[in-house]
Design a protein that fits this description.
The chain folds into two domains: 82 residues; 242 residues, BirA Bifunctional Protein, domain 2 (2-Layer Sandwich), CATH 3.30.930.10. 40% of the residues lie in helices and 19% in strands. The chain has a seven-stranded mixed beta sheet. β3 and β4 form a beta hairpin. α2 packs antiparallel against α4 and α5 crosses α10. The structure holds 3,4-dihydroxyphenylalanine. 3,4-dihydroxyphenylalanine (DAH) binds next to β9 and β10.
Length: 351
C-alpha cells in the first residue's frame, strides 16, 4: 500500500509539473483527490489493514494528499499568472501612435448669416420665430393685402401644390401669422429667417432661397424706428461706415414702401463692378405696415402702427463673403464649404 501511495505521489507530481492548463490541472485533482480518486480509494480500503498499520498509512496518505494539494495550488497560481501576462501582452496599447484625424464639417455661410442676425435681433429684444414652408394662399398673400387676382402676385412666381397651398414665396407670410396669434395682446417684435421658393431658374436666381423677415408692431411706431433699426442691421452685417438710401417702392403690405440701398462696401460709393458703377447696392425691402394688413389680422390701425422688412439671406452671404455665384451656396461642394471652416472674422471679405 505504501508503494501505491508513493507511486501516486510520484505520478501526480510529474503530471502537475507537465500540466499546461487549469482545466488539465483540475482533471489531475479529480484523478487523485476526487471522490473516486486514487488516494481516496486507498483511504477507503484502510479498513482491511491491521491496527498498527492503519495510523502509519493514514498519516502517509494525508501527508501526500496535502502535498499534492499544495502542488496543485502553486501550479494554479503559476498558470493564472501566465494567462494574465499573455492577456496583457496581447492587449498592449501603444499610446505613442498618432490618432486618426477626424475631418470636421463647417458651418454653411448662409447659416452663419442666420446665426449672426438672430444674435443681433435677440440683443435688441426681438423673438426668433418660424412658420411653415408649405403655406396657405391666405397667409402668403391674402392677409398681406394681396387678394386673388391682384396684379402684384405676378411679382412672385409661385409653386402651387393645390389651389390653396403653395411653397411660401416670402417669409412675409409669418407677419400675418404673428399678428393673428397675438391680436393686440402684446407688442410684436419678431424676426423669421427661413427658406422660400419661387419658379425662378436663371443664373442669378435659385428656385429655393433664404429670406429673413422682420416685423415690429406697437403704439407710435414710425419710419424713424425703421430707419434706425435697419441702419444697425446693415452696419453690423456689412460694415460700420455704410450709408443707407431709402428709395420709394411698392409692396402691397406696406405703405409707404421702400427699397433700401447701401453705399457700396467695395468701392465706398465711387462706382465699381459690384455696384454696377452706381455706388449703391440694393439690399432690402421695407416699409410701414399697411393699415389693411393691420386690420385684417386683428389690429386697430388707429391705435397701432408698425414696420416690416425683408431681405435675402443668400445675397447677404454673398456680399459678406465675396461669393460671386449663388449656385455655390446650394451645390455643397466641400472644397467651397471647407473655406468656411475657420473663424468668422477670418472669412469676412475686406473690401
Ligand atoms: N417679401 C418681399 C419680397 O420677398 C420683401 C419685403 C418687402 C418684405 C417689404 C417686407 C417688406 O416685410 O416690408 O420681395
Amino acid at each position: 500500500m505504501k508503494d501505491q501511495i508513493n507511486k501516486a505521489k510520484e505520478n501526480s507530481t510529474k503530471e502537475i509539473e507537465r500540466c499546461k492548463s487549469l482545466k488539465e490541472l483540475n482533471d489531475i485533482r479529480v484523478k487523485y483527490l476526487g471522490k473516486k480518486g486514487e488516494l481516496t480509494i486507498i483511504l477507503r480500503g484502510m479498513g482491511a489493514l491491521s491496527e498498527e498499520e492503519r495510523p502509519v498509512i493514514g498519516s502517509l496518505v494525508n501527508e501526500v494528499k496535502e502535498e499534492i494539494e499544495k502542488l496543485i495550488q502553486e501550479k494554479a497560481e503559476q498558470l493564472e499568472q501566465e494567462q494574465l501576462n499573455e492577456k496583457l501582452k496581447s492587449e498592449v496599447i501603444d499610446v505613442t501612435l498618432p490618432g486618426k484625424k477626424v475631418k470636421r464639417g463647417s458651418k454653411h455661410p448662409v447659416n452663419r448669416i442666420i446665426e449672426e442676425l438672430e444674435d443681433l435681433f435677440v440683443s435688441m429684444g426681438y423673438d426668433v420665430v418660424s412658420g411653415p414652408e408649405l403655406e396657405t394662399d391666405e397667409y402668403c398673400f391674402e392677409r398681406l393685402n394681396l387678394p386673388k387676382g391682384h396684379p402684384a402676385r405676378d411679382m412672385q412666381d409661385s409653386f402651387y401644390i393645390t389651389s390653396e397651398y403653395l411653397l411660401r414665396t416670402q417669409t412675409s407670410a409669418v407677419q400675418a401669422r404673428a399678428m393673428m396669434a397675438n391680436k393686440e395682446k402684446t407688442p410684436i417684435r419678431i424676426v423669421c429667417p427661413g427658406k422660400t421658393y419661387r419658379r425662378d431658374d436663371d443664373a442669378t436666381h435659385s428656385h429655393q432661397f433664404g429670406q429673413i423677415e422682420g416685423l415690429v408692431i406697437d403704439k407710435n411706431i414710425s419710419l424713424a424706428d425703421l430707419k434706425g433699426t435697419l441702419e444697425i442691421f446693415v452696419r453690423k452685417m456689412l460694415g460700420d461706415n455704410l450709408k443707407l438710401r431709402f428709395r420709394p417702392s411698392y409692396f402691397p403690405f406696406t405703405e409707404p414702401s421702400y427699397e433700401v440701398d447701401v453705399s457700396c462696401f467695395k468701392c465706398g460709393g465711387k462706382g465699381c463692378n459690384l455696384c454696377k458703377q452706381t455706388g449703391w447696392i440694393e439690399i432690402l425691402g421695407a416699409g410701414i405696415v399697411h393699415p389693411n394688413v393691420l386690420k385684417m389680422n386683428g389690429y386697430d390701425p388707429e391705435k397701432y402702427s408698425g414696420f416690416a422688412f425683408g431681405t435675402g439671406l443668400d445675397r447677404l452671404a454673398m456680399f459678406k463673403y465675396g461669393i460671386t455665384d449663388i449656385r455655390l451656396l446650394y451645390t455643397n461642394d466641400v472644397r467651397f464649404l471647407k473655406q468656411f471652416d475657420r473663424k468668422d472674422e477670418e472669412n469676412e471679405i475686406k473690401y
